[in-house]
Amino acid sequence: MRSNSRPRVLVTGGAGFLGSHLCERLLGEGHDVLCVDNFFTGSRHNVLHLLDNPRFELLRHDVTFPLYVEVDQIYNLACPASPIHYQYDPVQTTKTSVHGAINMLGLAKRVNAKILQASTSEVYGDPEVHPQPEGYWGRVNPVGPRACYDEGKRCAETLFFDYFRQHGLRIKVARIFNTYGPRMHPKDGRVVSNFIVQALGGQPITLYGDGQQTRSFCYVDDLIDGLIRLMNTPDDMTGPVNLGNPEEFTIRELAEQVLAQTGSKSSLLQEPLPQDDPRQRQPDISLAKSLLGWEPAVPLAEGLEHTIAYFRDGGSAV
Ligand code: NAD
Ligand code: UDP
């Protein structure tokens, strides 16, 4: 750590959905926060309320280029997370995951910072093992439309573990499962924001496939708590650690829940299932429970209330 100062934390992708909540929480804990973002899917708007804080700094920068700053901890979140955004420019998505990881690991090595990677349940692909424990190696199509994200994130994990073995870097790898909450982009295309925006606007709810595929939804506050706990574990705890809410729902159940909670009369509109869409997903969080003493506290109905209120307000309340 730099002498005579509070821990200085770099959050890449800090102006995005998860990143903005993380910056906020870290500032609340007394850290200095440097938020780095190229504003591809995030926006200044997500961190407007933090700009007056003298311990907060915002820097426009693309992590595929080297970054020279002095920090004690790095949370590497920079990467579009929704399928429509990561498939918009798939080459840039892989570059962000892979070159971004190399640049941030190089930075961590130079300044001897601890570094946490926001990895994903997508490393398990369309899983045959259910629920997914960290020891499962996954089933990813390496040449499909999701591969730029899935394989990019897998390669980033490889890089993290090679820097750990080869250079003794202090690394942490979190495998994040579907997380939702305020500050999701309204046109982000992910299922929770899509369904809420459609329900509130009286538009049909777009159910891809038969809606029998499953996901497990974690509220953002729980997820941020898990990330910070993981960062603060002893140096020999590298992960990977699953972070997510193990309560599993079909996508049709989610649609019905959103309709009930918004009081919307929107109809359900079946659309084709995207290629390689995983049939099921549920985290095994035994490791997070034992290593971090962590498990989600916010049930879906409560998290949806907060998220619906955010979008009802025009998606601007911070
Ligand atoms: P998001 O799209 O809201 O945030 C990503 C942020 O990264 C955005 O602010 C974007 O502008 C920024 N970014 C993208 N490319 C960049 C680049 N090259 N240089 C600098 N900044 C760049 O998505 P999110 O949901 O907040 O996801 C944050 C991280 O968590 C991502 O790495 C994602 O893969 C991971 N994750 C999220 C979820 C989830 O359900 N939210 C699940 C698994 C993993
Ligand atoms: N989905 C849906 N309608 C939508 C958006 C998504 O039925 O408008 C489905 C999608 O096919 C997938 C699930 O919801 O089965 C979760 O999709 P999302 O893009 O949120 O996340 P991911 O597939 O990456 O888990």
**Helical residues, percent:** 25-40%
CATH level-four homologous superfamily name of the domain at 8-178 and 219-244 and 282-297: NAD(P)-binding Rossmann-like Domain
Look at the structure and give the mean pLDDT: 96
CATH architecture identity of the domain at 8-178 and 219-244 and 282-297: 3-Layer(aba) Sandwich
Given helix and strand content, the structural type is alpha/beta
Written description of the protein model:
The chain contains nine helices and 13 strands. With 318 residues, it is α/β, with parallel strands linked by helices. It has a domain of 213 residues: 3-Layer(aba) Sandwich (Rossmann fold). The strands form four sheets. Strands 3-2-1-4-5-6-11 form a seven-stranded parallel beta sheet, with helices on both faces. It has a two-stranded parallel sheet with strand order 7-10. A two-stranded parallel sheet has the order 8-13. The radius of gyration is 19 Å and the shape is globular. The mean pLDDT is 96. It binds nicotinamide-adenine-dinucleotide and uridine-5'-diphosphate.
Summarize the structure.
The protein has 318 residues and is an alpha/beta fold. It has helices spanning 17-28, 83-86, 90-111, 147-167, 191-200, 220-231, 251-262, 286-292, 300-312, and strands at 8-12, 32-37, 56-60, 73-76, 114-120, 171-176, 179-180, 205-208, 214-216, 218-219, 241-243, 248-250, 268-271.
